[in-house]
Write a structure and sequence with these properties.
By secondary structure, the chain is α/β, with parallel strands linked by helices. It contains three helices and three strands. 5% of the residues are buried.
Length: 97
């Protein structure tokens, strides 16, 4: 396993290596899961969302992780316009000007 300067690290992301997880926790750092997902497959259906969330929580618990990191900047929410009150099909933070 690589050596890390734990005095500078608070969180290790996207890790599933048990040795690194133990080293991080021993040093007081958190270890989080990558919450990457296909928004069209997951967000368009309440059933799919519920199943995906349950699977992520199960994985985080099984691996003794401290959380799940979501990168919402990359998502497009247009397909959820009704749920979000009329959102257009632009990426979050973009403009069509």
């Amino acid at each position: 396993m690589r050596s890390y300067d734990w005095s500078h690290l608070t969180t290790v992301a996207w890790n599933e290596d048990p040795a690194l997880l133990c080293a991080a926790h021993a040093a007081g750092a958190r270890v989080v899961l990558d919450g990457h997902f296909n928004p069209h497959a997951v967000l368009g259906s309440a059933v799919a969302r519920t199943a995906w969330v349950a699977a992520q929580l199960d994985k985080a618990r099984r691996l003794h992780l401290d959380g799940i990191n979501f990168d919402l900047v990359r998502l497009h929410f247009g397909h959820l316009g009704v749920e979000l009150g009329g959102a257009d099909d632009q990426p979050v933070g973009s403009s069509d000007e």
